[in-house]
Amino acid sequence: MAYRKRTLDMQADRIEAVLARHKVAARVQGGAVTPRYVQFELVTGLGTKVSKVASLAEEIALALGKREARVYRRDGCIRVEVPRQGADPIRLLKLCSRLATVPPGTAVLGVDEAGVPLLLRLPAPDVAHVLIAGTTGSGKTALARSLLTSLAMYNRQAEVQLVLIDPKGRGFGPLQRLPHVLGGMAATSEEALARLRWLVEEMERRDRLGQRRPLLVVAIDELADLIQTAGRSAEAMITRISQRGREAGIHLVACTQKPTASLIGSAVKANFPVRLVGAVASRDEARYATGLSDSGAEKLEGKGDFLLVAKAETVRFQAAWLGPQDLETVLQALAAGPRPGSRWRTAGEACQEPPAPEGLIRRLVKRLPGPKQDGR
């Protein structure tokens, strides 16, 4: 849904009215409309504190008819951010149509606050394994589906294979038809244990032979539930894979509602360098999920609103969404033959040619955690 200038001007006037009532010397000088939010930049008078404006966040939200408003400092100015009404989802296929090439082993996550595509290169030394956390409705399963599907879209089966572990059988069921799925989906605790035992054996075999290909991406839905139902042996095997898997080309992508040490084990949690955190229920859960004391994850909107947390860097992004029709398009295209490196599109849509695609890829890969990659 496009935002009209008249609407933005009206919202800016209301923000300024709230500030004026409380004698805060500030005015709106501009801003940006992102996929999920409208951001207003404030010019403030000398001595105006962020804390003073932040104390008015609830009143600003009320004046704009929004559930909440977020006030923060960035790039030397104070910003007021409010959620958009009726924001369109970020469709994975439409997003992929903007990408000329994607480096091997790289997943498409979504777009950042500036609308720039955000990618994650799993083999990078500082990535290795990914933990996706968020409460029901946060969009964590949808993000995992998009991440895994994008790997299949841009990598041949000889390069990447997917191992699906989903004891509840709901999260990854639609992905079973991807040709990259190895051995079907493990849909019970017993099948999950058997698959984990095989992965440990495969990891040890690769270590002996010095092999790393193809990459094995092990996707686990509801990690905490699996550990609770399958017991200590599951936790021990997942811990071993998380500690030694990267050197053997084995990467974990695990989803969980509550990534606390008591539920998933401190050893498991410590070996997921990258966290993709959606909406959580409380500040304590935000701290558990991100490993940061003040990430603000408890204020995320849900429905694909995520933080990427890696080392000291935090990137807010809107997760890509893969609907049933688009998944069917991907499945049919993959069944017709491999097309890694090809540009993807939705039916009836023309591709958007991005300016300087090589520069775009270098910029995207540069911002990933880990050493700068050359995009090969």
TrEMBL record:
Pfam families: FtsK_alpha (PF17854), FtsK_SpoIIIE (PF01580)
Occurrences of domain FtsK (ranges): 115-287
Sequence segments annotated as region (Disordered): 338-376
SUPFAM superfamilies: P-loop containing nucleoside triphosphate hydrolases
Keyword NADP applies: no
Keyword annotations: ATP-binding, DNA-binding, Nucleotide-binding
Residues engaged in binding ATP: 134-141
GO molecular function: ATP binding; DNA binding
Membrane-traversing stretches: none
Matches recorded under InterPro entries: FtsK/SpoIIIE/SftA, FtsK_alpha, FtsK_dom, P-loop_NTPase
Database matches in PANTHER family: DNA TRANSLOCASE FTSK, SPORULATION PROTEIN RELATED
Similarity comment: family membership: Belongs to the FtsK/SpoIIIE/SftA family.
Entry protein name: DNA translocase FtsK
